[in-house]
Amino acid sequence: MIRLHRTLGVGLGITAMSLCWVLNPLWAQEEAITPTTVVQEVQEKDPQAADEGEHLAPAAQTQEQQIAPATPTDKAKKTQAPKKDDPTAKLKAESSMLSAQADLRAKKLDAELADLKEESQRLKMQTEIAKQRQANNLLKMELEKQRLAAEAALAKAKRDKAQADIKAELEDLNNTMQLRDARGKRELSELKSQIARLTTQRQLDKARNSQNSAALEDQRDKLMLEIAIKNAEFQKQTVTNNIETNAARTTLMIAQNKLALKGVDEKQKMQLDGELTYRENPYDKESQTLYITDRRIKLSGPIITGTADYICDRIHFFNNESSDKPIFLVIDNCPGGSVMQGYRIVKAIESSKAPVHVVVKSFAASMAAIITTLADHSYAYPNAIILHHQMSAGAGGNMTDIQQQLETLKEWERRLAQPVSAKMGISVEEFKQQMYNHRKTGDWDEFADEAIKLKWVNNIVSEIREEGTRKRPLGDPPQPWWYRILLQDDKGNTYCKLPPLEPMDAYMMYNPNQFYRMD
């Protein structure tokens, strides 16, 4: 910028000298001053501008030789006196010098732009390094996520607003730059058109009247100088706009990188870090605490076709992964189901090299109770319920078919009930008799702290620690759509229907106005 002002100062000085030469021909005859001499004088006055004007002297000397064809009057002057310098050549030298300085300034601006791009690349590399470092801490922030969930949503909204503001500001800058460019180009085009018009007029006037040639030349020189000044101002404004645009883009990139880093931090908080401990004996008898790892298999709902595949495949996988670390089959609420599917689960547990620990949290009935009772390692909460009963099935066909199906069912009962009764120390018949002694329907249910006396479960646990839960659980608790529908009874009172309960469950809730009702 400083050099540009100095260059314009040199150009104005040369123009002033040129005008003096035109107005004072006597002095011009006594002393011939070339643009090269003017450049030398400017260099002596301003040493710092010497370097800028040094490479322009040869261009000025070249311009001295490119003078317009002499008129008849000029030829007469050649015979009478030595040839003097033409102001047009001086102004051309000045224009060449200004153009060279503008090119130098453009190269410097290109270098600065390259530096900015290099700085942007360095910021990108720092971002990649930060991402790699943050990946090492990815699992350490999970416990903080729940507290910061609301803050993260608010921060995200603020970031989106900030990003939108930055984009709007950048768009405004681009629009302003385009408007300025259009205005500069329009002014430049008008000046060029005016120059062309004046040049044509000057040529016509020169052909008609050579006496007006000097005035036209002066006017053209002034217009050329004005064009040079306007062009310099236009280039200056263009450079300023480019710098502002690059700064805005850099700011936007930094903001986007910060947003990306914030998103990585939020993902880090969704998962715990650290090594998971696999205990050889996961049960602490003194504290009655059971430690469950990620080698966990869930059994909830009825045992149907496909349940055995789901459980057995996972038991095989965990065995192939490690035959020493324990596997946990966690029964949340299972009413039993298919005897063939259940028998495959029992055999998979028996044949597993890695110990399989069966854990009952709420309810295990029928086939689920047999799986729990026959397991070498079984656990239950004190208030968990375990229920044994005779299996049930339907039969169809002729009498022979029904008889054969009945024999098959009896054999299934013997194969499944005999190991359970043997563990209890009684016969199968005594086992069935006690079922109906405890309940006329034959459904013999016991809480786990009583079932342990019958050897239906091996250990009572007061605490179960799910150490394998390493990711933050998301989502809302289950709520059927029809549970949210409000109804009205015959008296016009509004009420809400409660969903049906699982077997052996009951509602225990405060409901004085009978707003919650069951069918």
Summary tags:
single chain, about 525 residues, alpha/beta, 2-enoyl-CoA Hydratase, Chain A, domain 1, seven-stranded mixed sheet, about 60% helix
Q: What is the correct CATH architecture of the largest domain? A: Alpha-Beta Complex
Radius of gyration from the alpha-carbon trace, in angstroms: 48 Å
Count of discrete structural domains:
4
Q: List the total number of helices.
A: 15
What's the end-to-end separation, in Å?
87 Å
- CATH names the topology of the largest domain as 2-enoyl-CoA Hydratase, Chain A, domain 1
Helix content range = 55-70%
How can the largest sheet be summarized? Answer: 7 strands, mixed
CATH class of the largest domain: Alpha Beta
| The CATH homology group name of the largest domain | 2-enoyl-CoA Hydratase, Chain A, domain 1
**Could you give the count of β-strands?**
13
Overall shape: elongated
Structural class: alpha/beta
Beta-strand share of residues: 5-15%
Determine the oligomeric state from the structure: single chain
In short:
This protein is α/β, with parallel strands linked by helices and 519 residues long. The chain contains 15 helices and 13 strands.
Structural write-up:
- The protein has helices spanning 2-23, 25-30, 35-45, 50-54, 57-65, 72-80, 87-136, 142-208, 213-268, 307-321, 339-351, 367-374, 399-424, 428-438, 448-451, and strands spanning 283-284, 289-292, 296-299, 327-334, 356-365, 377-380, 385-388, 444-447, 459-460, 463-466, 486-488, 494-497, 516-517.
- The chain is an alpha/beta fold.
- The chain folds into 4 domains: 1-136, no CATH class; 139-274; 283-466, 2-enoyl-CoA Hydratase, Chain A, domain 1; 481-517, no CATH class.
- The protein starts with a helix and ends with a strand.
- The relative contact order is 0.07.
